Amino acid sequence: QVQLVESGGDSVQAGGSLRLSCTASGLGYSYNCLGWFRQAPGKEREGVAGLFIGPSMTYFSDSVKGRFDISHDNANNMVYLQMNNLKPEDTAIYYCAAGEWNCGRWSAYAYWGQGTQVTVSS
To answer: For each successive 10 residues of the chain (122 residues), what is the average pLDDT?
Structure first.
């Protein structure tokens, strides 16, 4: 059974940084993609960062490129989202996600955690 558990959400001021963590378990060898999505109030869930575990290729949405980074600790089945220079529009529930292939395509992700709240104040 796939289980993704996020942590690290908090309230910060604009310009600040946060690091989200996700513990992944139950993923078989077919799951090569780990990523982060977010959903703001009244908006659809959107992909923000993806990672292909093998060669550690990364993918980012235009809205976070240059500010966010995704990394993976293979030994501990952890995936992280480092968020810098946060903006009020980054306020959302952030979800850890897993998929099999095509890690740069947000539609490839099939499993999500319960989410962690990030609030950025101006």
So the answer is: 95 98 89 95 96 89 98 92 98 96 93 97 96
Nearest to 33 by CA among 70, 7, 61: 70
Burial class, 103, CB count within 10 angstroms (exposed 0-12 / middle 13-18 / buried 19+): buried
**Six token digits for residue 115:** 């989410």
| Contact in structure between 24 and 34 (CB atoms under 8 Å) | yes
DSSP 8-state symbol, 74: G
Q: Which residue matches tokens 């740069």?
A: 104
Give the pLDDT score at 74.
Answer: 86
